[in-house]
Amino acid sequence: MSEYPTQRLPVQPGADDGSYGYYDDDRRGRSRSRSRRSRRGPLIFLVALVVLLGLFVVADRVAVAYADNQFATQIQKQGFSTKPHVTIEGFPFLTQLAGRRFNDVQITANNEKTGPVTIDNINATLRGIKLNSGFSSGTVSSINGTGLITFASLAGASDVPGLKIAMINSSEAKLTADLGFFSGSAVAQVTKVGTDKINVKVISAGGIPISALGGLGNFTIPLPSLPMGMTLQSVSVSAQGVLVHITGQNVAFGG
Asked: Is there a contact between 70 and 86 (Cβ–Cβ < 8 Å)?
């Protein structure tokens, strides 16, 4: 009697088209692989785009930092005693550079000597800057800014010994001095005179004749050398000193 089974083994069912199951499984595997690749495509593109944008931003910021320094050097040549701090606003910078036009540039400077006084905390906005094709010169459509002349600097320019100045309001200041024959306080009005002068005129001396105050009664401080051809637009009294408002139109630089 035979030890081998006499019954036939069951036949594995095939696909409807007559093929065996493992061929169908292979097709499904290839389909899933193609599907995964199709999903990875947009992701790879997105990652590449982010990397390129990051490189562009880095290049743009490096370029603007270099341009800030170069522009500060050019601005210093226009009357600043030291190199000011320059910030070219706007993004991207490279498109502005390609067009040689900058709409907003901020400059700050300190300790600018002009005439007998020193102007601190100069903050100015330059608008409508156009550079020539060689990037070595250009024009500024408008300049608007402020600077501070401290009371100590203002008093030192008056030639009145021991003079102290303090704010009363935006147009008046309190003057205190000891002139030997007179010691006391007076009220002075601070105004702009002409295009480049600040006038300090005593309007009340507490009963003392103003004529007796000599040079303290009415003195004018010229500002003859404002940088970049700027002019004095207006003045106002602040808690720290006299705030000067400066302006300029169609200012050329470089060359």
From this structure: no
Which residues are paired to 137 by β-bridges? 254
- Number of H-type helices and E-type strands within the chain: 3, 13
Helix ranges (H only) for the chain are: 21-76, 93-99, 151-156
DSSP 187: E
Helix, coil or strand: residue 208: coil
Query: Could you tell me the CA-to-CA distances from 157 to 6, 115, 219, 220, 235 in Å, in that order?
Result: 126, 9, 9, 9, 16
Task: Say what the pLDDT of residue 79 is.
Answer: 83
| CB of 242 closer than 8 Å to CB of 177 | no
Closest-CA residue to 248 (of 151, 105, 100): 105
Q: Residues with Cβ < 8 Å from 74, sequence gap 6 or more?
A: 137, 253, 254
Could you count the other beta carbons within 10 Å of the beta carbon of residue 34? 10
Taking residue 222's Cβ as centre, other Cβ atoms within 10 Å add up to: 16
Closest CA to 222 of 190, 252, 192, 198: 198
Question: With a cut of 70, which residues of the chain have pLDDT below it?
Answer: 1-41, 179, 181-182, 207-215, 255
Cis peptide before 92 (omega within 30 of 0): yes
